[in-house]
Amino acid sequence: MTIPLSLEPSVKFVRWGSAPIALFGVLHLVAGGLVFTFSLRSSTIHVIFSFLPGTLIIAGWYWAAQNDLPSDRYIRIVGWMVGTAAGLALVPVLLIISPAITIDAPVFGLLAAIGVGGFGGLLAGVNEASAIERAREAERERLDREYAERQREQLEHVNHLLRHDILNNVNVIQGRTELLLADADGEEAAQLDTIDRQAGEITELIQNVRAYLHAIQNDEETLKPIHLSTVLEQEVTTIKTAYPDVGVDTDIPATGRVRADDLLSSVFRNLLRNAVVHNTSSRPRIAVSATVHDDTVVVRVTDNGPGLPSPVREQLFEASDQGDHGFGLYLVKTLTEQYGGSVHIESTGEDGTTFAVELQPVDTATQGVQ
C-alpha cells in the first residue's frame, strides 16, 4: 500500500537537544512496566503511577519540541526535570532508610516520586524557557524600535540639510545665473545657460531625494484618499509652463480618489518630465490619460520619442547612479509600490513610449473621508 504524500512524515520536532527529555520518559515507562510486572500489584493507583508519568513526559517532550527554543533551553529543562525528580525522590528515600517507618512498596513510591517530579520539572522548565524567549523577543523589539527611531532622526536631519541648506544655496546660484543671463550673449550666455540647467537638475534631484526620504519614513497608516484628477491636472499645468514648446494632450476624467499621500504629485511630475527631457523628436508631444476600472485606476503617460532600448528598460526603475534617467523613476517605483500599486512600461518603440501607473481607488463612502 502506497502512503499518500499528504500523510508522509512531516513532524519537525526532532531536535537533538530535546532527546534527554524523551529518554527520561522512556526510561520511566520501562521502569514502571518492570515494577508493575514484578510487584504483582494491579490496583488503579499502581497502574496510573507506573505508566502515566512516563507517558506525560513523552507527550510533554513532543509539545516542548514544537516550540522553537534554542538548544541551551532544553539543557535547562532537563536540569529542572532532574532536580525536581531528585527532590521528590528524596522523600521516599528518607522514609525507606528510616528505621521507625515501614513503607508498603517502597520501589513503587520511589518510581512515582521520580515520575511526578520529572513531569513537574518539565512543565516548570518549559515555562521558564518560554518566559525567557518572550523577554528576549521583547528586548529585540525594543532595540529595533530604538534603531528605527535613530534612523528616523538621521533621515530628518538629512532632509533638513537638503531643504534648508543645500537647496537654498542652489536656488541662490540659479537666481544669480538667471540675472547674468539677461545681459549675456554668445559663449558667455551658453556657459551660463549650462550652469542654470545643471542647477535646475540639482534642484530636481534634491526634491526627489526629499520625497524619497519622506516616503521611506512613512507607513500604510499615513496613506489617505487623494483626488487623482486634481493632481494630474496640476502637474500637466506645471509641465506646460516649464516647457511651452511641448504639445500636451490630456484625457483626464473625474477619477475620484486613490489610495496615496501628498507625494503622489512626485510620481507624475517625474514621469512627465522624463517624457519631455528624453524626447528627441523635432516636435515633442506627450499624452496623459486616466482610465477607471472596478479595482484599479490606470494612468498612462505617452511620448513620441525614439523608444527605449532593451538594456535601458531592464534597469530603468533601479536605484543606480548610472544611466540618463537618474533617480526619478526609482522614486516613482518606490512610491507606487508603497501605495499598493505599480508602474511599468506598457509599450515602447519608434513611435514613442507609454508608462502605465496602476493605483487603488478608494470608496469614500466606506472610508469616512471628509
From TrEMBL:
Pfam families: HATPase_c (PF02518), HisKA_4TM (PF16926). SUPFAM superfamilies: ATPase domain of HSP90 chaperone/DNA topoisomerase II/histidine kinase. GO terms for cellular component: plasma membrane. It catalyses: ATP + protein L-histidine = ADP + protein N-phospho-L-histidine. Signal peptide: none annotated. CDD domains: HisKA. InterPro entries: 2C_sensor_his_kinase, HATPase_C_sf, HATPase_dom, His_kinase_dom, HisK_dim/P_dom, HisKA_4TM, Sig_transdc_His_kin-like_C. This is histidine kinase. It is an enzyme of class 2 (transferase). One of its GO terms (molecular function) is phosphorelay sensor kinase activity. Residues 161-363 form the Histidine kinase domain. It comes from Halosimplex pelagicum. PANTHER family: SENSOR PROTEIN CREC, SENSOR PROTEIN RSTB.
